[in-house]
Amino acid sequence: MKRNIIRRAKRIAAFIVSFAVAVGTTINLGASGTTEINALTFSKNPEITTVHIGSDVTSITSDAFKGLFKLRSVTVSEKNPYYSSFSDCLYNKNKTVLLCFPPALSSARIPASVTSIGENALLGVGTDLKNQIINTVNAQAGDGLTEDKVPGEHFVHTQYGIRWKDKNGNLIEPKSEIMRLVASVIEECTDGTMTQSRQLERCFDHFISEVSYEREMKVPVGDWTRDYACRILFSGKGNCYKYAAAFAYIARGLGYDAKVCSGTVAAASGGRTPHAWTEVKMGDKWYIFDTEMQDAKGSGYYKQTYDKYPAGPIEKTASWTVYYQ
């Protein structure tokens, strides 16, 4: 993929004080002096909405955030060797265990690496959201295959670069344009030690960072998905149809069944507008992966269901299953 595309820089600046201090409803646990967070740490301030954990914290007990029902964000210093944060939630350093989903947080993106939930991590979270989080993590726990264990045809990393593993297990050098373009994406942002779901997440984020929206009013007809995928992967520009087609081929390249879908979504100005997105089958369910909406809105469009889709209601009128030939 050409690299002359303007990247969208997403940087977070963190300010760490050297001691524990309450500022309004925000608590900053500093880079020195605080090593353990337990049930007593916040017991006298139930109004806390935001907690920042410094680099010296080595222990957080499972009941540390008990009673903080207004908590909506937990962030962690990047220098902390034991804990991390993502989308306002608390995780262990490797983001394999969810340790705290703030009760006042209405939604968050769960990293694909998360396969378990810590004790009391969902304390105070509403029933519907709690069930959704549990189902997501359980699905990811069952989707932890590395590429050498993924069945069927898909791309794999080798010492000679990315190769296509065919149905007979033979490793073939990518020959078609679409295979070469997708292989370059997979090679650039993944490696062979990652789980299949982690590779999908990395490709989703990487693809969005590399492409930019280009308005085009024409609704494609006929057998268009492969051509549209090649165009955006080569040029780095395209509309929602090209976004959807390219990510469908990327997902298929990782071993998932994938479709390009078209239909309508709610328009910002009112009414409905034509749109296209990708469907990926994970386990026994199909999920929406809308790269163009994620690029435009920033979050909420990775592994969505039709009833939870943020720009809903979304209505599908056609779909195309993608294959490599």
Automatic annotation (TrEMBL):
Alphabetical list of SMART domains matching this protein: TGc (SM00460)
InterPro entries named among the record's database cross-references: LRR_5 (IPR026906), LRR_dom_sf (IPR032675), Papain-like_cys_pep_sf (IPR038765), Transglutaminase-like (IPR002931)
A Pfam family recorded for this sequence: Transglut_core
Highest taxon of the lineage: Bacteria
Residue span(s) of domain Transglutaminase-like: 232-293
Residue stretches spanning the membrane: none
Protein name: Leucine rich repeat-containing protein
Species, as recorded: Butyrivibrio hungatei
